[in-house]
């Protein structure tokens, strides 16, 4: 059998059939007309029969001269000339039809893209503004982006990743605003990536972020085209995959994860107030359970006497330390959150709401947890859901347990030490070489000097 690297002149239809001999969906057709013949070879499962009939078969019978038909195929948008046998197989497996006429092989793009239409985004709620979401079709996603970003400076580069999946990855950036050092680093990381399968943006995000032991996300994964466009205008880079409806934005700073796109629509003062609420919610998620453990078990003298007596009264029947009480209730809340994500949408919200009410009421009535603990867990759950982007929300959900463990070991001192370590860790992080803990509130609300000045 001929090696796949042979020059295309030595490749015939018979050679392609031998290479794809075990493909039950391989289809061969012979087109016959008074003017001559043409051979057609394609894989039925990934090609569109309407494209083949309209753009390949019908023109053959309409043209009297086979040479003219060959020129038509070569000039038609979507046709491609293969250089090697390996390239021939890649085209066939990516949805191209092989047409053999006038002693030449022409490969015609006839891919059948089975994707959903543009729909409302599901992961990032919208109160005002556009609600359309990216799809699994890269061409559609590029259309959504370019309709909003009509600038000649918007550049796109393409690369194939995955030895088996051969996933097409597009890199979008504004050439006049992007940091070219970051762009070069991204190209290097993508160019050295050696994997077999790539099916989701989350997979690629893990591969290109660099630090495998990181706690916080170094990129933003979003399905909103308006967020992609806004970040492109801020000088960031967007990485988009075919077959997935999410884009990766980089580099990012810690503050970017607390910006909702609706903030741009609000009055400036209102937008800053809403962001302050989200950051306060993060602080409550991290500190409330830990402070409860510290004040209850180690440092009750810090709070007012009335509050200390109230906590002691609510825990009068609780048979174990506050550390165990907090862990039990937080883990139950984690179970309910995961169940709400996995259950069918028709019953998920109802089942988890009823389950949460029953468990909370029964645990309090049985004396296993105190009433204040129920209030605290509810406040923690609500404040965690205030973060606009799920990636940061998941990180904060995990990080709060580190604060609880520190409070259980050292009390309030442990909480302070954990907070200092948390701040130092953030200050040491980099996203593609850029400082991660830059807290520029104005930049993320679209009032930076770059946007005011219209570029560099």
UniProtKB/TrEMBL annotation:
Keywords: Membrane, Transmembrane, Transmembrane helix
Keyword check for Repeat: no
Transmembrane region(s): 237-261, 273-295, 307-331, 343-362, 368-389, 401-426
InterPro entries, sorted: Spore_Ger (IPR004995), UPF0353/GerABKA_families (IPR050768)
Keyword Lyase: no
Similarity annotation: Belongs to the GerABKA family.
Name of the protein in question: Spore germination protein
């Amino acid at each position: 059998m001929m090696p796949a690297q042979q020059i295309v002149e030595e490749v015939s239809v018979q050679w392609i059939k031998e290479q794809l001999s075990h493909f039950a969906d391989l289809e061969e057709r012979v087109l016959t007309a008074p003017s001559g013949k043409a051979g057609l070879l394609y894989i039925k499962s990934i090609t569109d029969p309407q494209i083949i009939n309209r753009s390949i078969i019908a023109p053959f019978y309409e043209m009297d001269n086979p040479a003219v038909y060959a020129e038509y195929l070569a000039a038609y948008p979507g046709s491609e000339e293969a250089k090697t046998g390996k390239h021939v197989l890649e085209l066939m497996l990516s949805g191209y039809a092989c047409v053999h006429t006038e002693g030449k092989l022409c490969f015609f793009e006839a891919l059948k893209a089975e994707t959903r239409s543009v729909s409302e985004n599901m992961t990032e709620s919208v109160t005002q503004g556009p609600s359309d979401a990216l799809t699994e079709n890269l061409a559609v996603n590029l259309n959504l982006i370019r309709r909003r970003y009509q600038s000649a400076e918007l550049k796109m580069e393409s690369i194939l990743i995955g030895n088996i999946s051969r996933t097409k990855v597009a890199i979008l950036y504004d050439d006049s605003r992007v940091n070219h050092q970051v762009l070069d680093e991204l190209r290097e990381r993508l160019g050295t990536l050696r994997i077999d399968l790539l099916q989701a943006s989350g997979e690629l995000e893990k591969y290109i972020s660099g630090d495998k032991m990181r706690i916080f996300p170094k990129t933003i994964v979003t399905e909103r085209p308006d967020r992609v466009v806004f970040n492109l205008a801020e000088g960031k880079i967007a990485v988009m995959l075919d077959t997935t409806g999410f884009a990766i934005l980089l580099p990012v700073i810690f503050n970017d994860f607390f910006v909702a796109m609706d903030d741009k629509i609000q009055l400036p003062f209102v937008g800053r107030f809403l962001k302050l609420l989200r950051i306060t919610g993060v602080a409550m998620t991290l500190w409330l359970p830990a402070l409860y453990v510290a004040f209850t078990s180690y440092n009750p003298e810090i709070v007012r006497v009335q509050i200390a007596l109230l906590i002691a009264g609510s825990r009068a029947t609780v048979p174990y330390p506050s550390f165990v009480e907090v862990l039990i209730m937080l883990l139950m809340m984690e179970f309910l959150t995961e169940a709400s994500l996995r259950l069918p949408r028709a019953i998920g919200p109802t089942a988890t709401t009823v389950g949460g009410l029953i468990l909370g009421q029964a645990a309090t009535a049985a004396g296993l947890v105190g009433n204040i603990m129920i209030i605290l867990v509810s406040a923690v759950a609500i404040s965690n859901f205030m973060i606009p982007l799920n990636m940061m929300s998941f990180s904060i959900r995990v990080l709060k347990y580190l604060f609880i463990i520190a409070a259980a070991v050292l009390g309030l001192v442990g909480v302070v030490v954990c907070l200092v370590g948390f701040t130092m860790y953030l200050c040491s992080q980099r996203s593609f070489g850029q400082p991660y803990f830059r807290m520029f509130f104005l930049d993320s609300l679209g009032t930076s000097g770059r946007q005011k000045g219209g570029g560099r």
